[in-house]
Design brief:
323 residues; 3-stranded antiparallel β-sheet; 11 helices
């Protein structure tokens, strides 16, 4: 290499470092493809606040609900690939809907770049206080005796609550009625009001309603029981097929510079590692926390596609067909 070529290479490397070090130089946003008030909303807003402190820039949560998360994901895919727009994604959007053959305005493998796997949730199936059952076994007995009379408030066709509904029906030989809402919050409020019999959300969201006697916990969607609900069985306790915890992570549009992706992961990992933050926002054993980097997250998503296909097959058996 000539002296001139070596100098040019050095200047290019230094310029790249300078770009990486100057990022971010303006506010960022995390697109949340669900309505405000849902199970993930407090988590994402807390994450945004923690990132703001570490990046010295404002990070806001931008709710873009619709079509089981695809409206917000599409907004992310179409954003500038500069690292200033991030998207909160779940296993439903990244592996289940594509496996269903849904018509999507984006390609999950080509249009997004992984940043970090945040973790997975341990949601609780709750029954309205006025429902005719107060345990999973009594739910099954009632549903068998009254086909179609149990109403399950789900948050989006094909989403995790719909997946649980199909798993319950398939595994117990029951027939229930799916009542889809635009998000977790509206579905849960419908259960509190007695408009539907069942809904699904995480413990920090449902616990106040349980303590107030407005909801009854009957199943935990996890392999291990929750310490706060030791008497409530898990889906494995009840031998339900093909139920998986919903995982979630952060992606950016494809093409974001690697230095910017690394900076974002560094900030998010620091938030997740903060003990006080975890005790406040990951409380009650409701989440398994990860923080894996871009390459690990990419490998994890690739491995998750087999689960997505199995869940899609279960939804098809139940008659679900994506638009």
């Amino acid at each position: 290499m000539t002296v001139r070529a070596a100098l040019a290479a050095l200047l290019l490397a230094l310029a790249g470092q300078a770009v990486g070090q100057s990022f971010p130089s303006k506010p960022l946003r995390i697109i949340v493809p669900f309505p405000p008030g849902g199970a993930v909303d407090p988590l994402v807003r807390a994450l945004a606040n923690g990132m703001s402190e570490r990046l010295s820039q404002t990070v806001i949560a931008d709710n873009r609900p619709g079509a089981t998360g695809t409206v917000g994901m599409n907004a992310c895919a179409q954003s500038a690939p500069d690292g200033y727009t991030l998207c909160f994604v779940t296993s439903d959007g990244m592996v289940v809907l594509p496996a269903l053959g849904a018509t999507l305005p984006f390609d999950v493998e080509k249009d997004f770049q992984p940043v970090t796997l945040l973790g997975s949730s341990k949601p609780v199936l709750v029954a309205s206080a006025g429902s005719a059952f107060d345990s999973f076994k009594s739910l099954v007995a009632y549903a068998r005796a009254n086909p179609g009379k149990v109403n399950f408030g789900t948050f989006g066709e094909g989403g995790s609550s719909h997946q649980l509904l199909e798993a319950i029906q398939h595994g117990t030989g029951t027939k229930m009625t799916n009542v889809p809402y635009k998000g977790t919050g509206p579905a849960l409020q419908a259960a509190v009001a007695g408009e539907v019999d069942l809904a699904l959300s995480i413990l920090p969201i449902v616990q106040p309603h349980i303590q107030a006697g407005k909801l009854k916990p009957i199943l935990v969607v996890a392999r291990t029981r929750l310490a706060a609900l030791p008497a409530v069985p898990t889906y494995e306790d009840e031998s339900l097929p093909l139920v998986r915890a919903t995982w979630f992570g952060i992606v950016v549009p494809a093409g974001v510079p690697a230095n910017n992706v690394a900076r974002l992961h560094e900030a998010i990992a620091a938030v997740l590692a903060d003990k006080a933050w975890r005790e406040r926002f990951m409380r009650d054993d409701s989440y398994d926390v990860s923080g894996d980097g871009p390459q690990e997250f990419a490998r994890f998503m690739a491995a998750s596609r087999a689960d997505g296909k199995a869940i899609a097959d279960l939804l098809r058996v139940g008659g679900y067909r994506p638009n």
